[in-house]
């Protein structure tokens, strides 16, 4: 997934100074952002109030959209560095191509995980023959300093472990571990992500780690997470300090639970790059414009995305929160 903002703000986040050790219930509003030719997304992270949850640093939620007569998602080749992208669908399909030669259709309940490392380019599109509905989330995970220059790669996991609980709870473990079930997806920091489905009239509790900070992204229905009722497309930041998470649902509902150990390092995030300094970001932009370092995405019918102009002032740190 690309940040298609032609004037992306520079964001520096990370560090533990603004992480409370106590549970919180902080509801974050989404920003509507156009993506490609015909897709609108709700951008929930980075947010004016919060910029990271563990190593999770970017969250877009889209759909459900009726694309029966539309091209659907069409995101041209674009670069990434210093991060992982996570593709997660509830409806539809997304065709992934990248500069290391990967070609994969990601479907609902399957994990598409791209590790950019030092540099990669990719495109994302709805196949020409596609389902009527498109609904999902695209997320980024920041790589720690010791791993952010590794070779790029792509993983596709069609089978993921599940957790079941009394009262109609089913959870698919996307990354990391939840209640003893571990995803096969590669991670570089202590973190987790799960898709939690609650049947109507569910009242359950989900075990969580007190040293992790968590957030809940509502996908459908109206799940009640720790006493807060959430409409689809909303993000509830929960902080740290819990050992279990109370859940309720009066109707069939689903949400993504995202968590991780608070990310210690300060990072600079601009456009589709994560680095540690203004100079790193500048060099990455120059390399993409010159056609070096990030490789070539073959097979996409269209031109790569041009990089936007850098801001006229050096990129500065602003912390994990506003």
Write the layout of secondary structure elements.
Layout: E1 11-13, E2 23-28, E3 31-35, E4 39-45, E5 56-66, E6 74-80, E7 83-91, E8 94-98, E9 103-106, E10 111-115, E11 120-125, E12 133-142, E13 153-157, E14 162-165, E15 169-175, E16 177-178, E17 181-182, E18 191-198, E19 202-207, E20 213-220, E21 224-225, E22 228-229, E23 235-239, E24 244-249, E25 253-260, E26 267-270, E27 273-275, H1 278-290
Antiparallel strand pairs: 1-26, 2-23, 3-4, 4-5, 5-12, 6-11, 7-10, 7-12, 8-9, 8-11, 10-13, 14-15, 15-18, 16-17, 18-25, 19-24, 20-23, 20-25, 21-22, 21-24, 26-27
Walk me through this protein's architecture.
The chain is mostly beta strands and 322 residues long. It is built from one helix and 27 strands. The chain has one helix spanning 278-290; strands spanning 11-13, 23-28, 31-35, 39-45, 56-66, 74-80, 83-91, 94-98, 103-106, 111-115, 120-125, 133-142, 153-157, 162-165, 169-175, 177-178, 181-182, 191-198, 202-207, 213-220, 224-225, 228-229, 235-239, 244-249, 253-260, 267-270, 273-275. The strands form six sheets. The chain has a seven-stranded antiparallel beta sheet, with no helix packed on it. The two termini are 24 Å apart. The model has no long low-confidence stretch (mean pLDDT 92).
């Amino acid at each position: 997934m690309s940040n298609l903002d032609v004037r992306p703000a520079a964001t520096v986040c990370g560090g533990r100074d603004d992480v409370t050790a106590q549970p919180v219930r902080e509801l974050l509003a989404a920003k509507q952002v156009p993506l490609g030719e015909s897709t609108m997304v709700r951008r929930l992270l980075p947010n004016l109030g919060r910029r990271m949850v563990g190593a999770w640093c970017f969250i877009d939620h889209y759909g459900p959209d009726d694309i029966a007569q539309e091209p659907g998602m069409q995101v041209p080749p674009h670069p990434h560095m210093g991060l992982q992208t996570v593709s997660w669908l509830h409806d539809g399909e997304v065709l992934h191509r990248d500069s290391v030669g990967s070609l994969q259709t990601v479907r609902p309940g399957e994990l598409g995980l791209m590790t950019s490392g030092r540099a990669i380019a990719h495109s994302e599109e709805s196949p020409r023959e596609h389902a009527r509905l498109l609904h999902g989330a695209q997320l980024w995970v920041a790589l720690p300093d010791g791993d952010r220059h590794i070779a790029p790669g792509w993983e596709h996991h069609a089978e993921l472990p599940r957790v079941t609980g009394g009262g109609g709870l089913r959870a698919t473990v996307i990354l990391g571990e939840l209640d003893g079930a571990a995803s096969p997806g590669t991670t570089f920091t202590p973190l987790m992500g799960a898709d939690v489905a609650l049947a109507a009239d569910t009242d359950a509790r989900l075990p969580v780690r007190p040293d992790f900070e968590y957030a809940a992204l509502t996908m459908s229905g109206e799940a009640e997470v720790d006493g807060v009722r959430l409409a689809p497309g909303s993000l509830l930041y929960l902080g740290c300090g819990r050992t279990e998470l109370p859940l309720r649902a009066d109707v069939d509902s689903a949400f993504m639970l995202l968590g991780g150990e608070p990310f210690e390092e300060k990072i600079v995030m601009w456009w589709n790059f994560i680095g540690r300094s203004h100079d790193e970001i500048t060099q990455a932009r120059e390399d993409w414009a010159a056609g070096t370092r990030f490789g070539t995405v073959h097979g996409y019918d269209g031109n790569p995305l041009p990089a936007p102009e850098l801001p006229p002032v050096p990129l500065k740190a602003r912390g994990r929160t506003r």
